[in-house]
Amino acid sequence: IMTKRTFNAFIIFCILLLGAAELSWAGVKHGGKITRALFSSNIEQREPVDSVVFLGDSAKEVYFFTEVLYMTGHKVYHRWEKDGQVVSSVSFDVGGPRWRVYSKKLLDDETYGQWTVVVTDENGWPLAAKIFIHGAAAMGNYLRTMRESDESQSNSAPPAPAANSQTPSAE
């Protein structure tokens, strides 16, 4: 049997719990999600023609495509960043339960480097992020960094077994 004091404590607990849930999920009240997010060399009939990660020096433009589900009436943003610095932000009003949007960036000699697009909702909550590299030199630097990272991980000695551990034997 629940006393009045226990009941009041339970109600206060529930209110606090709901308030905490509201705060921690403030960015995702819409319940939506991103089902596809990718860079492409072109968009035809509202669909990407390919998916690119590296673009050579001669590339003149790149598109970022996003498919959004269950965010009708909300906004999504494409935040374009180059080498970690925000360059632009493009907003989209989501007009249906499945909505496809894209933004475009023109490329030239000044745009070589690592690019990221972060897809956010109207509260700034990140929903997806993708990276591409523009330019042969930037691609070479990126691949060299990845190789060096892999080599440093493979050259590190494995951890020594614990003093009381047993090595499994094949029988």
Keywords for this entry:
171 residues, alpha+beta, 5-stranded mixed sheet, 3-stranded antiparallel sheet, 2 helices, 10 strands, 24% helix, disordered C terminus
Put the structure in a nutshell.
The protein has 171 residues and is an alpha+beta fold.
Description:
This protein is α+β, with helices and mostly antiparallel strands and 171 residues long. Helices cover 24% and strands 39% of the residues. A 5-stranded mixed β-sheet has the order 4-10-9-6-7. It has a 3-stranded antiparallel β-sheet with strand order 1-5-8, with no helix packed on it. Strands 2-3 form a two-stranded antiparallel ribbon. The longest helix has 21 residues, at 4-24.
